[in-house]
Amino acid sequence: MGGEVYIDNNEPFDKQVNSLSHEINHLHDYVFGKQPDVTKMPKAEFVKKKMDNEIRAHYKTYLAFEERGAKGAQPLGYAGFKAKVDQETKKKGKALTAAEKEKVGKEYLEEQYKKVWVGSKSGKNYYQKWEEYWDQNNKRKSGS
Question: How big, in percent rounded to 5, are the helix, strand and coil portions of the chain?
Fold first, then answer.
């Protein structure tokens, strides 16, 4: 579960760049041993770490998109993220710091992953997906 990056070359180039921006962060986690271990971590810790990594990778895709001039195909959820940042900037009366923007972005993404982005067939969110993955890989431990 890691060590390789696959990009669909049938997608338009700008979507491939968004995918690469996201997946390179997962590859970084893999190379530097930051991937959670499903066989060594308690379920809640495993799921939290997987989702923290997913949210960080997604957030960094937004930053990469902005660094490219925010042109072309937007990463999933970018318009909502941008609206949240704009709303917080207006409240504050000046530009957000990088840390404030990251906090807004990660909170926005956490909500999307928990409540909005669900599998079309399963109806399950990413957190539920990783809980099931943990269960499947720990059947002997949990007595299932």
Answer: 65, 0, 35
